[in-house]
Specification:
alpha/beta, 432 residues, eight-stranded mixed beta sheet, four-stranded antiparallel beta sheet
């Protein structure tokens, strides 16, 4: 099948039908050659990163928008425009292959229309780009509601930096399993395979690859020597600081990266409990445990209603990796900005409050709760923690790490800070 047509179908599934890219893309890539698989991925990620600009160009060049059963052709045109603007594919090849995509989508009669729009774009693109750059939502390719929230939180200049970073491709981070190799030993194994990587401060397990690769090309991946996990997400297990013989809860645990990392760092736990509301994603938790030969109690349950799934003793430590807007990982998941709505934020904030209050009751006196999100919006992060502290008399902030000399109790990581994703952490202790 025509690769451009495949990309258009995936984009239609994501933008029009609300399916996540991480679901829609793998489902259609299975039957493709490695070369075509890579091209489809590049086109889908690229169009989603630049969607409002491409939409604007398309609307400007057409008298009537494509709707209904012709909507897939709209995304085919966007695929064509993306190639012309942002790739090294020769313009004649980009136009020709995109036009042929209409036949693959069973609409050959509209090949002429697609050809005309793309040819017009080639002639008029400079003027159209100048017009688009006058509007922040089109300049930075973020929905207006998110532009406003970021500007309110960080100011216009910093918000512009954040949105620019969101439009870059995220690097591939590795978490070295200390049970097999330390970071320097694993770096040497990568070097033997001509793979370049660098470490980061305050995380002895993390390596950031210079160029992404297939996970099965990584030394010892199938044996559990290494896992793929962003550097910011890796900090969770370090900040949690689990101790021997403790009972630990990882709430909202799927896909399990933080669960297994905690077990890697502290193999002498009394018990690790991993709970998640999404039963399908829980399968990933078990897959990670199996690959790494680790043990945990995996439970399907709602973190806001722990009485429904836990009747045991209170936990020594809880990792509350709360459901959030995921605005810190947009560069890794560009569809997030188009699947989220402004109204979602208040709903998420309310859910986070419910989860925090419910889990706090399951924490031992003197116990520690690490609150984490992959959001960069204050309502979900420091303001959320402020609200919790104001309403919870036996809760106090404590330093994130006992191994670092500073006394930081909260940390907001912004996208591409030390090449990491956007993340937030706060560490709370329950009074004795």
């Amino acid at each position: 099948m025509n690769v451009r047509a495949i990309a258009a179908k995936v984009l239609n599934q994501v933008v029009e039908k609300g399916q996540s890219l991480s679901q829609a893309l793998p489902a259609i890539q299975q039957e493709l050659t490695p070369k075509d698989k890579a091209l489809v991925q590049m086109l889908c990620y690229g169009v989603l990163r630049t969607l409002p600009r491409l939409d604007f160009f398309c609307r400007s060049l057409m008298k009537k928008p494509l709707t209904g059963k012709q909507r897939d052709l709209h995304f085919l045109i966007l695929v064509g425009m993306y190639q012309l603007l942002y790739t090294r594919i020769p313009s004649h090849a980009a136009v020709g292959e995109t036009v042929n995509g209409a036949k693959a989508l069973k609409k050959p009669a509209l090949k002429g229309m697609i050809n005309g729009v793309l040819r017009s774009f080639l002639r008029e693109q400079e003027a159209l780009i100048e017009q688009a750059d006058q509007q922040p939502a089109l300049l930075y390719c973020h929905p207006s509601w998110l532009v406003k929230r970021l500007q309110a939180a960080y100011g216009e200049e910093k918000a512009a930096e954040i949105m620019t970073e969101n439009n870059q491709q995220a690097p591939m981070w590795l978490r070295v399993n200390a049970r097999f190799n330390d970071r320097e030993q694993y770096l040497a194994l990568l070097t033997e395979q001509d793979k370049q990587a660098e470490g980061t401060d305050n995380n002895d397990n993390a390596l950031c690859l210079e160029s992404a690769c297939d996970v099965y090309q990584l030394p010892g991946f199938e044996q559990g020597w290494v896992s793929v996990q962003d550097g910011a997400a890796q900090l969770a297990a370090h900040y949690l600081e689990a101790q021997p013989n403790e009972l630990i809860l990882d709430a909202c645990s799927a896909p399990g990266g933080k669960t297994v990392h905690t077990l890697e760092l502290q193999p002498e736990l009394k018990q690790m409990v991993a709970v998640d509301f999404d039963e399908k994603r829980l399968l990933r938790v078990q897959e990670n445990l199996d690959r790494l030969n680790l043990q945990a109690t995996v439970i399907h349950g709602d973190a806001s209603k722990p009485d429904e799934w836990w009747s045991g003793e209170q936990f020594d430590r809880i990792l509350c990796d709360a459901p959030c807007s995921a605005t810190g990982v947009i560069r890794r998941h560009p569809d997030i900005r188009w699947l989220r709505r402004d109204s979602d934020i208040n709903e998420l904030v309310s859910l986070q409050q419910d989860i925090l209050q419910a889990l706090w009751k399951k924490l031992k006196p003197g116990g520690v709760l690490l609150y984490a999100t992959c959001s960069i919006l204050p309502d979900e992060n420091d303001l959320q923690v402020e609200r919790f502290l104001a309403s919870t008399s036996d809760a106090s902030l404590i330093p994130l790490s006992s191994k670092i000399s500073d006394t930081v109790c909260q940390r907001q990581i912004l996208p591409n800070e030390q090449k990491m994703d956007g993340f937030y952490y706060a560490k709370l202790q329950k009074a004795l």
